[in-house]
Structure of Peptidase M23-like protein:
Amino acid sequence: MRIFLFCILLLSCFAGQAQTAAAPAIVMRVEHAPAPGIINGKHTLFYEIFLTNFSALPLQLMQLEILTAEDTVSINFISGDEIARRLYMPGTKPGAVGNPVLPPGRVAVLYIEATISGNKMPGGIIHRLMFKDANDSTSPECRVYGAATRLENKPVLVLGAPLVGGPWTAIYDPSWERGHRRMIFTREGVARIPGRYAIDFVKLDNHANFTAGNPDPVKNWFGYGADVLAVADGVISSVNNSFPESAMVSGLPAYAAEQATGNYISLKISADAYVFYEHLQPGSISVKPGQRVKKGDVIGRLGFTGQSTGPHLHLHVANANAPLRAEGLPFVFEKFKVSGAYPNLENFGKESWQPLDGGEKEVRKEHPASNSVIVF
């Protein structure tokens, strides 16, 4: 259920005075109720806070604290440069690292990726934002409580393997300015993030190469043509098999956002959960809308169609059968083995990943960590 909570519960400035009409005012809201996933054994929330500066002052954001709604116990916080890295003002370039400032009358999106310790999840959360007048270093520090939201209490979606074997690199990073996590699509007057938990799977060999020789021909990529599997029993909701494929990575034409998926399949696995498989090989899709499939069935092959930098499988789960008009949902895989991870992708395909301490381990009912190397 979509939630829209728009509230300021309390605002105060630490100057020994009551709030006046001239006091700075920030409104916080969470538009999509977050649902916990599990990454590296910890409950993790991916969600967004929309901030609006209703004052005539530029406001420097100092710290955001996440509290339990029931008893306002602190469970996580971000501050300083970390806020700057997570802050985006629509219509502008992402802010550089530094003191994050919200100009008068502006709206900003603050991307949150928060871990919550312990096995018990709170029923809801609220936020405490610390800020001050950015033009006056002597101004008092203010705080506002708001963006109260419940947490979705549905069981996390457990998926089977979408691919066979490996190693596969689970490519995503919530901090990437142009990554799936931060791509907001506005359609029909609503802003949504379909790829909130999306993963791009790229296959490697045991020497950490992703191609056999020249990376320009798509057929040289190790994952190209790999079988793509149904991750659960379900019904095929939609299929697009109309995209041609460039034989060379360098020959890929430019595509608009509406065409970014390339050839894709949408698999309905529950009343409000659809699995999207994107960039599939032309002619490889072996299913049609309305067809029932079983977990493990081959439904297509990994390809290079749509908006892509190389052959890979894009996978995400959303709450509607619409590539750009749906909210991304958390999911975990039944099991996979983790070999290691790339701290960053600067040397991807040139150097091996960083192995796990203690060697490869099997993981059950988790979402792969950012840029981890896994085997199904």
Remarks:
- The chain has a mean pLDDT of 89.
- The two ends are 32 Å apart (CA to CA).
